[in-house]
Fold this protein.
Amino acid sequence: MPTTAPSPRDRLLETANRLFYSEGIHTVPVDRLVTEAGVTRATFYRHFPAKEDLVVAYLRATDARLRGAVESAVARDGADSGLSGVLDLIGETTCAAGFRGCHFINAAAEYPNASAPVRVAIAEHRAWFQQAVTDLAARSGHPDPDYAGRVLVLLHDGALSGAQLDDPEAVRRTLVRAGRDLLGLPAPE
Amino acid sequence: MPTTAPSPRDRLLETANRLFYSEGIHTVPVDRLVTEAGVTRATFYRHFPAKEDLVVAYLRATDARLRGAVESAVARDGADSGLSGVLDLIGETTCAAGFRGCHFINAAAEYPNASAPVRVAIAEHRAWFQQAVTDLAARSGHPDPDYAGRVLVLLHDGALSGAQLDDPEAVRRTLVRAGRDLLGLPAPE
DNA sequence: TCAACAAGAACGAACGTTCTGGCTACCTCG
DNA sequence: CGAGGTAGCCAGAACGTTCGTTCTTGTTGA
């Protein structure tokens, strides 16, 4: 039996995630969103006062999904610190089909005003990730976890940009090797 | 005596560089461009058949400027390989006032179609930079210049994204330290 | 009965682009 | 030298389209 159909709001969020990520935000009109989500304009504006509110909701949903993915990757690493799992996760992400860079960096390019709600959501996501990898570095016994965390963020951002514009597989290999070198992790089997 | 006034085309390019970079491309209408450049619409469309042609010209002009900046940084390094100078150049760039990330990565976020002329210009710029730092790594005697070049691009892209969204000075320090670690350069004085 | 939704028309603003008309500088050819 | 043409530019109106947002009406299900 089919599961219950997702609510209009969820369909809008799912459509927003697909279209905003693959085609950009300003280039996707409300028309496309409501058509492909199978809802009417009235329904759209009942759930989101304006298009920008959907953008923020889209980023927050993406943030929640990524937090879950990192948690899983860390858990998969078992007794290890989790840093290796996070490196692998980034590498897998950048090589996935339809990959088009970082949801948040891309959105920031379209919202230059640093105090816009969109930018607040971006800043919150980045602050979480920075803290998460710094904690992992500390847990792994790295002598300078703050530095290690910042390097991981640097490599992460660079990989997400490069994998979209250059050769994704080469970027993935470089990321994993450089991450392990810089963090003092052993080479993979 | 004042130098001769720049041509309408040059004023358009200069205005495009300023506005596109600081506010994004789709968010800046042709109205703003012609008003702030002090030209008329007719003049605009005489030099550029469409807005997208100005975007491409803006990216190519930026590309030329960056090539010159890297050349100067390498030359400043004197007898050294030039890698140190390039690292410092990136660090200075990311901390400059009005910095808003990479011209090319930002533009790519607004032009998802990988075969668009804008994306071609972006690819050409990235191919040049990749080759340039790889050459420098080879000249410095790095045992694996291809790997070193790719790491430098990774760090560069990450720094440009991070400096815009996080603490620029911390990003700069992390970039220089990580770059020197990987390249086996001595720590700065 | 009421709130959520479908369907679609409608609105005002903003967009990229084209057009009309007049002014000025420069080149050409007598 | 000087008349006449040509090309580049200014000023601003105009066009057709698309955008984000609102409104109207009718239907469904709790």
